[in-house]
Every structure is written in C-alpha cells, then in structure tokens.
Amino acid sequence: MSHNAEIIAVGSELLMGSVANTNAQDLSAALAAVGVNVYWHSVVGDNPARLREVLDIARKRADIIITTGGLGPTYDDLTKQTICEAFGKPLVLHEDILETIRVFFERNAHIKMPENNIRQAELPEGCTVFDNPVGTAPGCAFEADGIHVLMLPGPPFEMRTMLQRHVLPYLRTLSGEVILSHDIMTFGLGESPMEELLRDRMAQMANPSLATYAKPSEVRLRATAKAESAEAAEALLAPLVEEMVAFLGDVVYGVDVPGLEDVCFDLLKQRGWTIATAESCTGGRIAERLTALPGVSSVYRGGVVSYWTSVKADVLGVPQDILDAHGAVSKETARAMAEGARRITGADVAVSVTGVAGPDPDERGNPVGVVYIGLATPDGTFCRPLELGKRRRDRIQDLSTNHAFDVVRRYLTGLPINFKINQRP
Amino acid sequence: MSHNAEIIAVGSELLMGSVANTNAQDLSAALAAVGVNVYWHSVVGDNPARLREVLDIARKRADIIITTGGLGPTYDDLTKQTICEAFGKPLVLHEDILETIRVFFERNAHIKMPENNIRQAELPEGCTVFDNPVGTAPGCAFEADGIHVLMLPGPPFEMRTMLQRHVLPYLRTLSGEVILSHDIMTFGLGESPMEELLRDRMAQMANPSLATYAKPSEVRLRATAKAESAEAAEALLAPLVEEMVAFLGDVVYGVDVPGLEDVCFDLLKQRGWTIATAESCTGGRIAERLTALPGVSSVYRGGVVSYWTSVKADVLGVPQDILDAHGAVSKETARAMAEGARRITGADVAVSVTGVAGPDPDERGNPVGVVYIGLATPDGTFCRPLELGKRRRDRIQDLSTNHAFDVVRRYLTGLPINFKINQRP
Question: How far apart are CA B246 and CA B254, in angstroms?
Fold first, then answer.
C-alpha cells in the first residue's frame, strides 16, 4: 500500500527566517528511499491554535504525519499537547524516560536536570517511544483514525539520529514497495549541458528513471527504481548506472560517494600516500573538507593558509623573484606554493590554490574569478588555470576547492589534469 | 494594518529532499524586517491539483501569498496557470518581456531562445511585473479579493535578487506596522541556563519581547518590538537591549553582529593588529571563517594546519622535547603552536587549537573532547583548556573554533581568557 506523508515543522524560528527547514529535506530524502510519498511540507509557529489548524488540514490529506520541533522543555514547546488534543490521546508520564533524561543531564552537562525537563518525559498513551541518544527530547509514534503520527525533535542532529535509528525501521514496516536510488557524481559538466546530453534517453524512461540535481559546481545524476524488493530494484538500476558511467566518462568521480574529498581520501589510502595543502583564496576550505573525514590523518599531513604574500615566501618558501615577476596570483606562484607545501611537510603530493575570490580585483588587476590550482607530485608539478567569472566570494572559494580536489583525483587516477571545462559548471 | 503572509514553495525537488527550502528562510527574514508576519510555509510538488488545494487553504488564512518556483519554461512549471485559474485572472503575453528574454539568451547563453521560453513572457493581466536581471523567468504581483499574490522564481539567487529589487519595495507600501529586532549574541552560556535566568523577566513582557535561539554552541537572544514606525519600535527596544547586555555581562559578544569572527575582525582592525592561526583538530575552520569575511586580508596573515605532529615540529617549530614530554594534545603544545604561528608569520597575535575531535581517543589516551586553545600575544601566551565531552566530530570542531574566537575576543577586550563556562554570570 502506498502512503502519502505530510511533514509539519513547528517552530517560530523557521518563520522568522533564522534557519532553513533542513529537517523536511532530510526526512523527504529518507522517506523517498522507503517508498513513502511526501506530498506536502508545512511550517507553523509555536502557536497552538495555528498548529491545530495545520494538523486538521494534514489529517484530511495525508495518512502519515511527521512533526519536527516543539518537544523541548520550555513553555512554548507545544507540539505534544496540541497533537494529543487533536487525536484525543492523553499524555502520560514515562518514569523510565524521566530517568534517562536525568542521567543524560548528569553525564553530558554535569548538572542536575532542570525541573522543566520533566515535561519531556510525558508522551501519548500507548505510543511507540523513540529514544534520543544525543539529546533530551524523546520522539514517539502512534496510530489513530488510520493515520500514523510521528513526533520528532527539532534540533537537526537529534532528528537525523532518530530518523536512522527509529523512523525508517518504523516506516519500512508500513510500506510494501521499495524505492532505491544510486547517485552518479560528476564534476566538470554543467547541469544544462548534461540535461541536453541525456534528454532523449531520459524521456524514454519511466522505471528506472534519471534526474539531475545541481549542487554548487557539481551535478548529481540520480537513477531511481521502484520494485517489490530491494533485489528487484537493484536489478533495474545496475545496467542503467553502468551505461551512464560509460557514457559520461571521466567527469564521473564516483557512484554513491558523498564528495570529491572522499574519493581523494580513498585514492591516497590505496597508494599509501600522504597529501599537504597550500591555500590562499580558499583560506582553509580544502583542509576543512579533508579534516571533516574521520581517520583522514592517515593521509593528510597538514598545510599552510598563506593568505599574505609574505607567508607564501616565509613559510612556503615561494621564491621572491617568482612573486615579484608574476605576482601572488599566477601559475608560477601556484606551482611554487604546491612545491613548498610538499617540501616542508614531507607529503607525497601537495595541492595549492591562489586566486581572486573578490569582491575586488587584486592589486595587479587580476579580475575576480582568476584562480590557479597547483599540484606537486613525484612526477613533477602541474597547474590548472581557471577563469570562474564574477561570482559571489563564497562560490568562488567553494568552486576552487572542488577544482583542487578534482585535480588531485585526476592525477591519482592517471587522467590528464586539465580538460575542456564547461565554463560554468 | 498588519499583514499575515503565507509562503508557498512549488517544486517536487523540495519534496524529494534534493534541496532545502532556503527561499522560505530568506523571504521570512526579509518580511519580518518590513513588518509582515509570516505564519505559514507550505511546500507542494509540481502538481496543479494539489497546488490549487494549497492555494485555496492559503487564501482563507493569509492576505499575502508569496509563491516561489514553477515559473520555468517546461511543461511541469504550472504556478502561473494554476494561480490565474484560482483567482480568475487571464494570462496575457507581454511582448516587451519576451524581447528581454530573447536578449538574455543571446547575451548569456549565446544561443537563440528556445520556443518553450515564450511561456515565461505570459503573465496575469494587469499585474506588476518584477523583472529578473539574473535569469529568464520574470516574477509578478497582483491584488485580487483583498489578497496580494506575488510569484517569484525558484532558483535561490534569482529569488534573492528579485526580493531585494522588487518584493521589499512592493511590501513596504502595504504595511503600516514595523517589526524590529535586535540580536544579543552570547557565547559561553547554554540555552537552558539562559532561559532559567530570564524566565521571569520574559514572562512579564509582551511588546517588546525576548526569545532565545540556540545555534551550535551559541545562544542568540532576540529582542523584538512592533510599532507604527521604526523610531517607535527602536524606542521600545533600546532600554531592553541595554538591560540585557548589562545583566548577561561578558558572555555577550555583540549586538546585531553575525558571529564571533566578525567581532574579532573589528577588534583587530581597531588596533591595527594582525592575527595568525595554528590549527590541529579544527583543521582549517578558524582560517575558513576568517577568510569568509571580505577584506579580512587587512588583519589575517595566514596560518598552518598542523595535522601531523611532524608539521607541528617542522613548520611551526614546536620543540620536540615539548611534544615528547606532553604530547601533541597538551597545554604546552597549544602554547608552542601559537607562539610558532606568531613567529613565522610575524602577526601580532596567533591563536592555536589542538585536541581530540574523535571518533577515537588519541594515542596517549586523551579522550574525545579534550581540546586546548593557545593564544600568543605581545603580553605573553595564554591557554584555555576544554573538556567538551563525547560529541560528534564536527560539533567538537565547530565548538573549538568558537572557543578560539572567544579567547581572541576576550584578550582584545581586556577580559580574562578563562571563565567557568555554563556557570556565568
């Protein structure tokens, strides 16, 4: 049986624009994977009357209602009370949950549980409790009038933890259909050129299907199939993924991998090699993405953020005559930065970035978007010059970071460093 | 007159979880600033029947309806058609807009306008046209049955451009009321302790009002007032903000500032000082947050990501006997890292971080969450030791980054570097 879900986020901070509703996004992506259609997202403030109206609309059109937020200990956290009134369920105190919350406070905050938090141990009578290992508010689920109501905490990390641990297992028992996807990750081809390449092929398909999703500077091509079992869905997907990987060639950097940095990490591990970084306009973004990966210290030695030209000279050892002759933003400096980072850290390879992130041109008149990626290796030093055009500062920084990882990936897989990059990937 | 708005995002990609609804966030923040209450966000797919139902609900509860998305040239872009049917408005072709779209294609894509795009020049009869300088889909607004309907494009950059250029001026003419907020930014006091401190004071208030918003490791205390004019709202806010800043003391790092790094940037600029960084477990996050700020090169020289112990020794010059005696994660190494970064870059101050981000303890048995912040200055070297407890890797990295900025802020404002966290004021 196919289910139609509505996701209701409760929280005035969403209506004030303080945060984006990432919970609805994470839930939607996860629900699609277990065959639950999400047809509506709603957001309402910490206001019981308006929440009640939103619930009354949802119960008429959806048979799964998932709320996020409003489970906290404070007076404006009203989700449970309002839902219990709407569905005629009494709230009852769970002594065992109260004890868990008490222990959580003592262990993590080293303080006694505030009195307020007793409210978090009150849950609808007869519900399934979703325990919260990373916060104090438990979630829960119950069925009433043929509708499954799930309440989840608002802090995104708590919500995501509960989603994986409790919500997906709960929903899998409801759904008889499986939807599986594989993501073919590409870098170097814009979304429009890719859609043009694939338009005819995509139009022929129904199940499995293909769709493109553009992240800043990357395109994810998602192949999706529905079937009665995971095996049957996989059998529909495998030949399509194979076909697309062959068709798109070396712009594909992986299938079902989270990002370019993960691919670089794997390639370095396979060789037993280490890497170093030398960053100017990306200001630590390459280092940051590498060090987000647990265990990366096996391949990442470290690097230099050489924001000032003097740091390029004094710490990385870029020769002063190169800086004088070509400037800080140049092919020659990019190469010397990579060589310097490789030398001072002892890494097998080093990648560098120097460029103009804006908002203004540099003092030599290089316009915003001029960026050079350097790569020092045992086989010599390489450079990828880029003209990214006038874009926002953070877009140039992120795009340059991706190009740096792409240069590393191409070198480690034996591909040429440079290729005819689509001007605006 | 006070207006109540609903923001309706149209797009199946939102219901698939491919992107977060950042448009609703950006619109909400902007609408709050011009005194329009946003009480609901809705998201619906590219399905005319469900969009029509969502519109019929919205027109009963809101007097401003703003849609994003569904204005593209393809067959599933149905927002205009559906809204015009709902409000009984005919769609008419605007020749001048058609010409603008043709020119946009030739200039930006260097191709002839595809036939499809003619649909983008069809707009509701008698509407106010919002031109789109950064894309092809124009937006528009009309009034019908006492309801203001605004349609905006879905791509976030196009939406934001149109918001500033057209939507805010349009809405300012409608609203007779102004809502103003000030954000009192704090670091070092959790959300629950702060709420407990302020509970009685908050309960007495209606206008102006106070609310807390917890970002990871920070609490924003927002004071909000409604009045007929900005001056009158400001007169309500000023004494409250002053009272709260005095009451909370030095956990307040600023009012209406975006983050700790902005405060550090300003403090350094005021002194004409420069800073450098030496990062181990934060892996470039301090550098990244500094270099996100345009113009930061006037104060930020650069730094070292000394992920390996050998980089701490070879690049930062941390003495080998300190590393041998105390290990890479120690007070002594944090101090020596900061001193090394200050020495090799020539900066006036340097901040360092070394610690265990996890998921595993380090080889000396330091548990996850043990972190040391070092600060080298002309007045000597300081250290803040932290025990952040077992948390997620990225939380420890972000929290340590904030502590590093807080140490810099406290030093530059003449406050003690260390304080008993969570037990202040």
Answer: 12
Please list the alpha-helical segments (H only) found in A155-221: 156-162, 168-172, 191-203
Residue A48: cis peptide before it, omega within 30 degrees of 0: no
B102: enclosing H helix or E strand: helix B95-104
Instruction: Give me the residue label for tokens 């070509």.
Output: A326
A63: three-class secondary structure by DSSP? coil
Find chain B residues with C-beta within 8 A of A313's C-beta.
none
The Cα–Cα gap between B383 and B376 comes to: 9
**Closest CA–CA distance from residue A124 to any residue of chain B (Å):** 24
CB–CB contact A315 B345 (8 Å) = yes
Tokens 């104060």, residue located: B299
Most confident segment among A226-230, B136-140, B218-222, B335-339: B335-339
Q: CA B99, B159, B233: angle at the middle one, nearest 5?
A: 130
Could you tell me which chain A residue has the CA closest to the CA of B286?
A284
CB A217 within 8 A of CB A26: no
Dihedral pair phi/psi, residue B97, rounded to 5°: -70, -40
Work out the number of other CB atoms within 10 angstroms of the CB of residue B251.
20
Closest Cβ–Cβ partner in B17, B359, B395 for A28: B17
First-to-last CA distance in chain B? 41
* Token code pair at residue B80: 């205009």
The confidence score (pLDDT) of residue A1 equals 57
Å from B412 to nearest chain A CA?
22
Which residues in A97-125 are b (16+ Cβ under 10 Å) and which e? bbebbbebbeeebeeebbebbebbbbbbe
Q: For residue A87, which amino acid is it?
A: F
| CB atoms closer than 10 angstroms to residue A314 | 16
CB contact at 8 A, A40 and A71? no
- For residue A358, give Cα distances in angstroms to B251, B299, B373: 33, 16, 31
Rounded to 5 degrees, what are φ and ψ at A126? 75, 10
CB B278 within 8 A of CB B341: yes
Q: Which amino acid is at A59?
A: R
**Omega before A359 cis (within 30°)?**
yes
Give the per-residue pLDDT at B422: 42
Q: Is A390 exposed, middle or buried (0-12, 13-18, 19+ CB in 10 A)?
A: exposed
Question: Where does A188-253 have alpha helices with state H?
Answer: 191-203, 230-248
Per DSSP, what are the bridge partners of residue A273? none
Q: How far is CA A366 from the centre of its chain?
A: 33
Residue the block writes with tokens 């600023």 = B254
Mean pLDDT of the A33-53 span: 92
DSSP conformational letter for A78: -
* Helix, coil or strand: residue A344: helix
A60-81 tens-digit pLDDT: 999 999 999 999 887 677 999 9
Question: What is the spatial distance between Cα B194 and Cα B47, in angstroms, rounded to a whole number?
Answer: 45
- pLDDT given at position B126: 92
Q: Say if CB A134 and CB A78 are below 8 A apart.
A: no
Please give the angle made by the CA atoms of B164, B169 and B173, to the nearest 5 degrees.
Answer: 155
- Give the helix/strand (H/E) hosting B313: helix B309-314
Q: Cα angle at A201 between A197 and A204, to 5 degrees?
A: 150
**Cβ separation B20–A25 shorter than 8 A:** yes
Residue B200 DSSP SS3:
helix
User: Is B372 exposed, middle or buried (CB count within 10 Å of its CB: 0-12, 13-18, 19+)?
Assistant: buried
Shortest Cα distance from B197 to chain A (angstroms)?
12
Chain B residues with beta carbon closer than 8 angstroms to that of A17? 24-32, 38
pTM of this structure? 0.79
